[in-house]
Model the fold of this input.
Amino acid sequence: MPSFVLASHLDRKPTEREPGRGPGTTSNVSCPVSWHFPFSGRRPVRRSVAVAGVVVILVVGGCSGEAPRPAPATEPGRDGLAVLVFTRTTGFRHASIDDGVAAIRRLGTANGFAVDVTQDPERIQDATLGGYRVVVFLSSTGEPLGPTQQAALKRWVEAGGGWVGVHAAADALYDWPWYGELVGAWFRRHPSVQPATVQVTDRSHPSTESLPVAWTRSDEWYDFRDNPRRRVQVLGVVDESSYQGGGMGADHPVIWCHQQGRGRSWYTALGHTKASWSEPRFLAHILGGIRWAAGGD
Done:
């Protein structure tokens, strides 16, 4: 069984602009396409791994016999899974992004999947996306994609790709209604970083199965422009009585997932702090989100 080793933190200064500048509303848009993925069978292979003392299971799709798609820059891992982590920001840039990149790379090494990282929007194109099972938007803010890249991401997800959004992924692309569907809800505001308690309301999901029912930790607790509950499967809510400054009331989702066309979308509002990326429970949470987006149950 591979071991999990924490690496040192890297510092990056954020830009001066605060998040949440763009207007936007969600709408229901679908995009049926006929694009087949190399991992289309979604026959999961389970492998038990220990992540800093927390046991989680990584599930990845099997390969089909179809003609090969263009390969990612990094060859798929031993279980045939490759993940692309996208970190471009044109708005506020979180100092924790580098820590998140390092942590996801370690998760890939420990659990047998390949990880590529890019800030280049040109990597979000049909030929490149075809080599990945999951794309992670790691606190990408502002307008990280142009119209051509937006169209490619939409085709890929609707055709069966897995999208993972972390924290400030909800603070992006406010003028693109389909992205509002994908992320589930857009960022509105937040109070200062402080401890709060997440009530894990669905522990049957891979991203929450290792978490306690009441999960207390420090983070930046986002309010959203509306409650996504009617559009998504809510996995966890933050208890506003456990911190100061919440503005959504008794039902305040912060972790959720949903189907998007033939693809999957998983979002966590957690992950603002650099310390998050060395927390075993948070890392198990991220790993479970990746494995679910990849097609695991």
Remarks:
- The mean pLDDT is 81.
- Helices lie at 97-111, 126-129, 147-158, 177-183, 280-293.
- The CA atoms of residues 41 and 62 lie 6 Å apart.
